[in-house]
């Protein structure tokens, strides 16, 4: 069993002027809440410890798909605990709005519209799929069963 870690090991300043300039140049808002990485890590830390602590602290190294990964905070927490995490998020232009931030942290994001199935992964490639606050944007409610089937694949 893994031991619970201290969140302080993840927090700190990561602001890179080039990343922020690129974010704004590609359409990101100057006061966008997801630019505050510490805020997002704290929020997702609490969420993961209440919903997925068995995976976070489990003995097995898990493979996690973070659908709608945004700035990568959830992936970063899983990685902090020694797991492998891959993000999936919508294209913004010809890349992903947060790509420079993710790249600066060494996080992988596959650019793919979460509403379009199948996802570009093999069956049973992941042990867990997380999707925080974006599921409702994929399709009208009638199409949700298809998305859930894809998560289970």
What's the structural blueprint in terms of helices and strands?
Elements: H1 17-25, H2 37-51, H3 53-56, E1 63-67, H4 73-80, E2 84-89, H5 99-104, E3 108-111, E4 128-130, H6 135-138, H7 144-152
Parallel strand pairs: 1-2, 1-4, 2-3
Helix pairs in contact: 2-4
Poorly predicted runs are none
Return the average pLDDT rounded to an integer.
83
Query: How large is the count of helical segments?
Result: 7
Largest sheet: 4 strands, parallel
The SS-based structural class is alpha/beta
- How do the strands of the widest beta sheet line up side by side? 3-2-1-4
User: How many strand units?
Assistant: 4
What spatial form do the alpha-carbon principal axes imply? globular
Distance between the termini: 27 Å
What is the alpha-carbon Rg in Å?
15 Å
Give the amount of beta strand, in percent: 5-15%
The helicity comes to 25-40%
Element-level helix/strand string: HHHEHEHEEHH
Structural write-up:
By secondary structure, the chain is α/β, with parallel strands linked by helices. Helix content is about 35%, strand content about 10%. The chain contains 7 helices and 4 strands. It has helices at about 15-25, 35-50, 55, 75-80, 100-105, 135-140, 145-150; strands at about 65, 85-90, 110, 130. It has a 4-stranded parallel β-sheet with strand order 3-2-1-4. β1 (about 65), α4 (about 75-80) and β2 form a beta-alpha-beta unit. α2 (about 35-50) packs across α4. The longest helix has 15 residues, at about 35-50. The two termini are about 25 Å apart.
